[in-house]
Design goal:
By secondary structure, the protein is α/β, with parallel strands linked by helices. The protein contains eleven helices and 37 strands. The chain is globular, with a radius of gyration of 25 Å. The N and C termini lie close together (8 Å). Residues 24-119 form the Rieske domain. One of its GO terms (cellular component) is cytoplasm. Its cofactor is FAD.
């Protein structure tokens, strides 16, 4: 329990009072510790009770993002942190603090009667107050994770003006992380990838969704051109277009009978094509030991697909995890049959005309030949910002933003395309291609569009899934001079703390979700490595 938690538990007793006849006894106050959570059920409705001193609150028990059991998360500084993906909620109101969930927690009536805790399964009705008569138009370009987060935050923040969303794909926003983690393995079909928002969200919130390709965004004129349709004049706009996967540059790779067997992974249709290729006992060549590349490699092994990974690096994830944990990850893959050709890159590909059982012959830079049935490219992205005029772009196409994600007057950027300063790790602007971070950016931008400044630093977080092991990463480290390991790395149960001059800059954990949840909230402030170690060992 953190210091802030202890102080919060000493405040005057408050309970949510109600005369609702549906109230029924669900727990006993004396059975709950002063700072504890308990999962109860009323009929088929799971409810989470949170006790803080003599105060009791009741919320939905499963995270609205992916259904994680919230009682396995952490309570710190008046917040509840989800154990799986570090979604964060205010325990006083259930309000959303950090994604990936995009909706607040449902609240349930609860009261304390003597030592009995009574609650109802009928959720309380709550809605943000909006200001009528708002004539402004806010535009959101791109309806991925960041675009969805921005729309949700704007309406939750009380914006009653026009919101228009423009995306070239005919889709509602969905959890794209599942496309590399669970779809290639067969655990989930592309059509079952969960949506990020309720099905009726855009209609019920009166948000206009336009399927179109943006031709030009003129930052000086505050105008968006979308071909033959009328231009959109905006008061504020958020660009959240991400990027397009890079195709491998291989001699012979453009030949029709070769190109049809090269797979990229960005959307549902890409995932469908990948699954169609991944027949049992086929052989996949994965180009690039990126997080997506290795997640796909692990998932394909679940289908009994042979996998070879070719990458110019030494070991996968060394830049983020350090050499020791990186070797653990590679060893985990090798123990499940993945073959690595590290320190190499592919230079040419051709149809296999030699009569072998595989379709393609791929030549590596050392002359070695790898025969395979299809290629999966995990080589990064090309940023989708060519349509923006009136502001400077960096050489890679990214846009510099300030602490509010502002590029220029009335123009904001989020996600892969944004180059930003990270307060917890100073040293100049960085660009990070992580899904949840894009949502954090978008929420900051949405609040800025509504006139609010960031109130506290945000902590980057991502997770990556391999052969049943979930690795979580907090922070961002350009470099570090100290690694403190807690737990048992050989059992894939650990938290590694990366420090620079005694200060924590990042942490990676495996199968330690509660500890990483507590650390996620604590890292909003500067922590020493020793302080971080105490937090991890206290959970």
């Amino acid at each position: 329990m953190c210091v802030a938690c202890v102080q919060a538990s000493k405040r005057a007793p408050i309970t949510t009072m109600t005369n609702d006849p549906s109230m029924q006894k669900v727990a006993v106050l004396s059975d709950l510790d002063a700072r504890a959570m308990k999962r109860v059920e009323i009929g088929d409705t799971p409810i989470l009770l949170i006790r803080s001193g003599d105060r009791v609150l009741a919320y939905e028990a499963n995270c609205p993002h992916a259904g994680a059991p919230l009682e396995e998360g952490a309570l710190c500084s008046g917040r509840l942190i989800c154990p799986w993906h570090k979604g964060t909620f205010d325990i006083e109101s259930g309000a959303l603090v950090e994604p990936p969930p995009l909706m607040p927690l449902k609240r349930y009536p609860v009261r304390v009667d003597g030592d009995d805790i009574l609650a109802s399964a009928v959720p309380m009705e709550e809605r943000a107050e909006s200001k009528p008569g708002d004539e402004r138009t806010f535009a959101v370009i791109g309806l991925g994770a960041a675009g969805a987060a921005a729309c949700s935050a704007l309406r939750q923040g009380g914006f009653a003006g026009r919101i228009v969303v423009i995306d070239r794909e005919p889709r509602t926003p969905y959890d794209r992380t599942a496309l590399s983690k669970f779809v290639p393995s067969g655990e989930m079909s592309p059509d079952d990838v969960p949506a990020l928002l309720p099905d009726d969200f855009f209609a019920s919130e009166s948000i206009d969704v336009i399927q179109a390709e943006v031709q030009t965004l003129d930052a000086q004129a505050k105008r968006i051109d979308i071909g033959s349709a009328p231009s959109i004049h905006y008061d504020a706009a958020l660009v959240a277009t991400g990027g397009v996967p890079k195709r491998p540059s291989l001699q012979g790779g453009d030949a029709k009978d070769v190109a049809e067997h090269i797979r990229l992974l960005r959307g549902r249709d890409d995932a469908r094509r990948l699954v169609e290729s991944a027949v049992e006992r086929s052989h996949a060549l994965v180009l690039g030991a990126s997080f997506i590349g290795l997640e796909v490699a692990a998932a394909l092994r679940n289908r009994d697909v042979a996998v070879t990974v070719v990458s110019p690096g030494n070991v996968p994830f060394e830049k983020q995890f350090g050499p020791d944990i990186a070797r653990l990850v590679q060893g985990l893959h090798e123990s499940h049959g993945v073959t690595f050709r590290m320190g190499r890159h592919a230079v040419a590909v051709a149809r296999n005309e030699a009569g072998g059982e595989r379709r393609l012959r791929v030549t590596l830079d050392d002359g070695a030949i790898v025969e395979c049935d299809f290629i999966v490219a995990g080589l990064g992205i090309r940023l989708a910002t060519d349509f923006i005029v009136g502001v400077d772009r960096n050489d890679d196409g990214s846009l510099n933003v300030d602490a509010s994600m502002r590029v220029a007057d009335g123009l904001f950027a989020a996600g892969d395309i944004a180059r930003f300063d990270l307060p917890i790790e100073p040293g100049g602007r960085i660009r990070v291609e992580h899904w949840r971070l894009a949502q954090q950016h978008a929420r900051i931008a949405a609040h800025a569009m509504l006139g609010s400044s960031p109130k506290e630093p945000f902590v980057p977080f991502f997770w990556t899934y391999h052969f049943g092991k979930n690795f979580e990463y907090l922070g961002h480290a350009r470099s570090w001079d100290e690694t403190v390991m807690t737990g048992s790395p050989e059992k894939f149960e650990f938290v590694a703390l990366f420090g620079e001059k005694g200060k924590l800059v990042a942490a990676v954990g495996c199968e330690r979700s509660t500890q990483m949840s507590a650390l996620a909230e604590a890292m909003r402030r500067t922590l020493s490595v020793e302080e971080a170690k105490e937090i991890v060992e206290a959970e």
